[in-house]
Design brief:
Blueprint (H helix, E strand, L loop, with lengths): L4 E5 L5 H13 L4 E5 L6 H14 L3 E7 L4 H7 L5 E6 L7 H8 L8 E2 L4 H16 L3 H16 L7
Parallel strand pairs: 1-2, 1-3, 3-4, 4-5
Helix pairs in contact: 1-5, 2-3, 5-6
The structure holds 5-O-phosphono-beta-D-ribofuranose.
């Protein structure tokens, strides 16, 4: 069966961030396919991926990029699938550039934008799973279990 989630990123250097989405999906038992697709360095790969994503069987796309982060928006421009954008923390501007590049989409082409960096990537994994869980009861159960375990792990008093 095809993986329902595509995790794409602009560079190998984004993987230490984007792996947090992958790890979250692993925890929740959701299959994914991770790929490097650069809007600037591999524009034809970008077009091929975005045009083919639906046909490949993906249901949700998690796209992370840093700096002049055009990847999530360009993918969203070429597919009707939901695109979750992760602003990777850049060296020069700490990811403020990535965030603004991804979040400020014109009306009509949405990108669901998460927080900068690892928290955003982890939450993109969770959100992708939550989208899939609307039509997968077993996954919805695993998401509820994840939340319950997270709640139970919070101590009432600091040590
Ligand atoms: C972006 O440029 C990538 O998404 C990455 O975050 C950033 C830097 O890429 P490298 O120069 O490390 O390949 O396109």
């Amino acid at each position: 069966m095809t993986a329902p989630v595509a995790i794409v990123m602009g560079s190998q250097s984004d993987w230490p961030t984007m792996i947090k989405a992958a790890e979250m999906l692993d925890k929740l038992g959701v299959a994914y396919d991770a790929r490097i697709v650069s809007a600037h360095r591999t524009p034809e790969r970008l077009v091929d991926f975005a045009h083919g994503a639906d046909g490949e069987g993906f249901k949700v796309i998690v796209a992370g990029a840093g700096g002049a982060a055009h990847l999530p928006g360009m993918i969203a421009a070429m597919t009707h699938l939901p695109v979750l954008g992760v602003p990777v923390q850049s060296k020069a501007l700490s990811g403020q550039d990535s965030l603004l590049s991804i979040v400020q989409m014109p009306a009509g082409i949405p990108v669901g934008t998460l927080a900068i960096g690892e928290a955003g990537a982890a939450n993109a994994g969770l959100l992708a799973a939550a989208i899939l869980a609307t039509s997968d009861e077993a996954l919805a159960g695993r998401l509820k279990d994840f939340r319950a375990a997270q709640t139970a792990s919070v101590a009432e008093k600091p040590v």
